Amino acid sequence: MAIEISARKREAQGTGASRRLRRMGRVPGIIYGGDSGPVNIELEHQDLFLNLRNEKFHASILTLALDGSKEQVLLRAVNMHPFKLQVQHIDFQRVSKDKKIHMKVPLHFVNAEKSPGVKEQGGVVNHVLNELDIVCFPDDLPEFVEVDLGTLAVGHSLHVRDMALPKGVELALHKNENPVIATVVVPALVVEEEAAPAVSAAEVPASEQAAAPKEGEGEAAKPGDKAAAAPKAAEKPAAEKKEKK
Question: Which end is more exposed in the chain, N or C (fewer Cβ atoms within 10 Å of the end residue's Cβ)?
C-alpha cells in the first residue's frame, strides 16, 4: 500500500516566509521533475516527521495529494535543524512510469546466525554497506533488498555483484566496481589471545627468577608465629626517658 501525504501550494517565499511557516508547525518544500515545472509546497510538520521515521517512506513511490490532485513522487532531500528535531525543508521529485529512476534502497540482512563463520567459527558479521544504489522503473522499485549471509565463512566477503536482485532491478555501478557488502571476521580479542605465545621458564630473565619466591617460601604465617614475625620495638635511649620524666 502506497504512503499518501497531503500538501498545499505555498505562495509566500523567502527566508522570512519559511521561518514563519516553521513557527506555525509547517514545513516548506518543493516538487520538481516530470513534465511540469517546480511547485513550492508546505506540509504539516508532525505528520511529515512521523513518516520520516518509517524506512519505507525513504525508498518508495509516494502519493502526494496537492490541492485536489494526486501525483507520484519520490523523497529526494530532507534538511534537518542542526540540533532540534525539526524538518527545515523537503524536496520531492515527480516520477513517470515509463522512465527509470536512480534510488538508494536499504539492505536487510538475514541468516547471519546460521552462517558457518558465526555458528561454527565464532566470527561476527561486519556490515560494510547498509544501502544499495539501484536503477529501475517505478513499478519495480523494491522497499528493500534482502541479503542472505547463510553461507558466509570467516575471512570471506559478500560483494554487490554476488547478490540476487529482484526482477527489473539493476545495479548503479561503474564497469569494474564491485564493493563489499558484508564480511565475517574474528573479534580482535580472540585473535590476540590465540596469538599470544606461552612463556617458558628458560625465557624468564635470571633477575626475575631470583626475585621470584621459591617453593615453600611466601606461605602464610601460622597464628602462633605472629609474635616471632613481628619486629621488636627499638628501646629508646636512656637520655630520652629521663627528659620525659
Answer: C
DSSP 146-185: EEE-TT--BT-EEEGGGS-PPTT-EE---TT---EEEEEE
Q: Is 86 helix (H, G, I), strand (E, B) or coil?
A: coil
> 3-state DSSP call for residue 189?
helix
Cell numbers given for 234: 627499638
Provide the whole-model pTM. Answer: 0.70
Say how many C-beta atoms besides its own lie within 10 A of residue 43's C-beta. 23
- pLDDT, tens digit, 9 for 90 and up, residues 63-94: 999 988 999 999 999 999 999 999 999 999 99
Q: Which residues pair with 63 in a beta bridge?
A: 4, 72
| Cα–chain center distance at 204 | 45
Q: Mind listing the domains of the chain with CATH numbers? A: 4-96 (2.40.240.10), 102-193 (2.170.120.20)
Single out the residue of 67, 72, 54, 63 nearest to residue 7, CA to CA: 67
Task: Assess contact for 145 and 108: CB atoms under 8 A.
Answer: yes
Handedness of CA 13, 14, 20, 23 (dihedral sign): positive
Q: Which of 109, 118, 113 has the alpha carbon at shortest distance from 184? A: 118
CA 91, 97, 102, 108 torsion: positive or negative? positive
